[in-house]
Amino acid sequence: MLKMKKVWILFTLILMLGVLAACGNDDDTTSEETTDNAGTETNDTAEELSGSVVIDGSGTVYPLMARIAEEYMLTEQEGVSVEVARSGTSAGFKKFLVEDGTDFNDASRHIKEEEQQMADDLGIEVKELKVALDGLTFVIHPDNDWATELTQEDVINIFKADSDIENWSDINPDFPSEKINTYGPNENHGTYEFFYENILEKQDLNADVNLQQDYSTLVTLVGEDENAIGFFGFGYYVNNQDQLGVVSVDFGEGAVEPSLETIAEDGDYAPFTRPVFTYLNVDMAKDKAQVKDFAIYLMENVNTFAGETGFAPLPVAEVEALVEELSGI
């Protein structure tokens, strides 16, 4: 009888140990599940923003900014509306430097002293964000097989007022004796100002230059005129290569075709390379969370989308420095 009692006691102890072990495993499982669920919850609780972000300015920068805005609304903040327009750099600054103006102004040149003074007078804190590098590109009709290589001096003389060049044959007697028809963006655009101030060094343009507001109009005009030559940002050429030819420019060491490889501030196409920007109203970023959030997203992703829209990317260190500055606003 005593022996039987000992057996039952032993059996009971074994059973209790088994139950305790099972409970311990359940506790571990519950703990792991709690941890996993907490991690998932953390990932899913990023702040959802709403409202709008309003951007205007440069037609050159427009394709890049529009692409980034599209991606932001699709993948980052579906509740935010990012509106991107392209009235031109100078026209855009007029909408930016007013009370309750736009949140950003895209620019294919630096802000001018008088524009900065206007911002100061209005009490608007402006932050310059360098977003990419662009190459000023000279385009021709695709059937033009004679002017595919020109010197820097040739290009300047074609467009400036005080010049003896009127026909193609004035550049080279082997070229056709046909009048050169010149095209470019109008005074609303930073590209015009960059060309006038940096390339022509403020020499007057030829009065015959056909200046247009819309870049797509310029693409069409050059693409339909065998004796045309025009200028604009590289992106408008690279996205319309089926309608346009391009001029390789000799800066003194052989002809250089603009490309993502040659467009650089210290590269082969450097004389016609320029940085492009967007300008942020810092007060808007402080008052509206979606404006600051978009500014940070822009700089974190700008190099990803630069190439596909016809811009050379920035050095990573420059981008990271700007992201850090924006995070501190």
TrEMBL record:
Subcellular location: Cell membrane
Biased composition (Acidic residues): 26-35
Transmembrane portions of the chain: none
GO molecular function, one term: phosphate ion binding
Swiss-Prot/TrEMBL GO biological process terms: phosphate ion transport
Keywords: Cell membrane, Lipoprotein, Membrane, Palmitate, Phosphate transport, Signal, Transport
Domain of life: Bacteria
Positions of the UniProt region annotated as Disordered: 26-49
One Gene Ontology cellular component annotation held by this UniProt entry: plasma membrane
Keyword Lipoprotein found: yes
One Pfam family of this chain: PBP_like_2
Chief location of this protein within or outside the cell: membrane
Record InterPro entries: PBP_domain, Phos-bd, Phosphate_ABC_transporter
Domain PBP residue range list: 46-299
Membrane topology: Lipid-anchor
Entry keyword annotation includes Hydrolase: no
Leader sequence segment: 1-21
Subunit-level organization: The complex is composed of two ATP-binding proteins (PstB), two transmembrane proteins (PstC and PstA) and a solute-binding protein (PstS).
Family: Belongs to the PstS family.
Function: Involved in the system for phosphate transport across the cytoplasmic membrane.
Name of the featured protein: Phosphate-binding protein
